[in-house]
User: What shape does this take?
Amino acid sequence: MSLQAAIESIIFASDSPVSIERLAQALPEYEREEIRKAMKELISFHEKRGGGFLIVEVAGGWQFRTDPDYHEYVLRILKSRPIKFSNSSLETLAMIAYRQPVTRSEVEYLRGVDCGAVLKTLLERSLIRIMGKKDIPGRPIIYGTTGEFLKLFGLKDLKSLPTLRELQALDDEPLMARQEELPLSTGRNVAQDIQMDLA
Assistant: This one.
């Protein structure tokens, strides 16, 4: 029996990412180090062959994923649309992901609006979960992200979230550079300019 083939079949048959621990349970006749080595070789094989799918580490385990280059073609055959989020859902999810564990009032303070309905939707989609209660008066519920969140966004773990610096680098021109300068006329002071505008 080929260890690589055994690992490949387990990952293929599983509906969730498969960790080394689960592989070791399924393959007790092999040492963990042998499994890790075979896993690395299998990942390398799929990367080098240039096929339509890869083995990707996500949510604490490995899973077959379509190569992103062929995503468009897969959507055509499945006739499905990618999951779309409202801006409020994305903002709330981002705040929870980066600040977890976090309470509803903390998210609402940061967003400046009520988040009850958004939190309910994210809970229903299994993207966030209740992690317990904060040890402060009132004992409010605290929220955090789930393995489903990691799978949906293709993240290995929470450390794989992009940093603020990486997010800012995506923006070609900084926000400050796009702001227009305030027109200040010569010969009058700023207070006179404001009075003229209000008149």
The first helix runs from residue 3 to 13. The chain has two domains: 3-77, 87-168. The first strand starts at residue 53 and ends at 58.
